[in-house]
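Residues determine shape. Next comes a sample protein:
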Amino acid sequence: MLLMYKNLKEILASIVILGSVQSGIKEGAYYVAIKGYFEQFQDMLGFLPYKGTLNLELNDTNIDLLREKLKYIKPVIISGFKDDNSERTYGSVHCYDCFISRLDNHEKKIKAAILDIQRTHHEKNTIEILAKPYLRDYFNLKDGDKLIIELNFSD
């Protein structure tokens, strides 16, 4: 009986979201490579990130569920900053640890981060994923491929 409750707690403490790979306009690569972001990503997330992000499109149900659940997960906050040379300001980014895998190969998964970017041009249903490897090569992805995003919000 105790094992059943433990398993139930694990199920309730996690969420699985399905997303579809889509091409971006390469802005993620530009921003991740900026020293003020890149160094914070490396220090705060614990991995040397690939200088680019993977865009995933979620359906309305999944994006609403994700946004609701993210309220209960403490983010890693990448602080906004000002470029001393150009006086340009860059906004903060909230990062949420997750695991990513292909829908058709759930066994091969990798640690990544969902980026909740405070200033973005994306549609409501598009999220950006940051990871150590280039995810399109790592998972052999093309536009339209389905990925699973796993989040855990237990202590």
The chain has a mean pLDDT of 88. The two ends are 22 Å apart (CA to CA). Helices lie at 2-12, 27-33, 35-45, 60-70, 135-138. The first strand starts at residue 14 and ends at 22.
